[in-house]
Amino acid sequence: LKLSRFMYNMRVLIMKRILFFGLGKTNTPLYEYLKQDPAYELYVSSDSSAELDGYPSERVIAPSDLKKDFFDEIFCAPGVPAGHPVYALGRVSNEIEFSIQLFDSKVIGITGTNGKSSLSKFLYDYLTKIGYNCLLAGNYGTALASFLGKGIKPDIIVLELSSFQLDRKST
Fold first, then answer.
1. Parallel, antiparallel, or unpaired for β 156-160 and 106-110?
2. CA distance linking residue 18 with residue 89, whole number of Å
3. For 24-77, what is each residue's pLDDT tens digit?
4. Beta carbons of 97 and 164 less than 8 angstroms apart
5. DSSP secondary structure string for all residues of 30-96
6. pTM of the predicted model, to two decimals?
């Protein structure tokens, strides 16, 4: 596991151009985290132009102007449909896939049709009560990327995951 994290982090270090397609509550904190590193050229795009307000105009790209293989990494928000043309542009991943690699924590991922939020909260409360330093993230309120760069070192991360987050990961 340590070697795979090292390999992932080395891949991240050589990336230059990153596209965030769809911002929302998942991609926005990841964008904010990565914009602190000058090694990255960050671009944003969305089918909703209102979502792009406040981003540097030279980094906003209309969906019709996106080019295949221009980006080293594309982060799609979970709500971007599977058949969307952005998936044909290059390597697509998501905020969870990227963020989880930057924590040295055990992870409990919860998915399914019903009861994800209840079980996530129950596990978080229980593990915290018995003495673990836990983080509750994913679809339960806070994107995991919101905790990047804050010096938080949980023992366990409890993640509520949607099928969209699981379907749209590259590894």
1. parallel
2. 12
3. 889 999 999 999 998 899 999 999 999 999 999 999 999 999 999 999 999 999
4. no
5. HHHHHTT-TT-EEEEE-S-GGGGTTS-GGGB--GGG--TT--SEEEE-TTS-TT-GGGGSS-EE-HH
6. 0.83
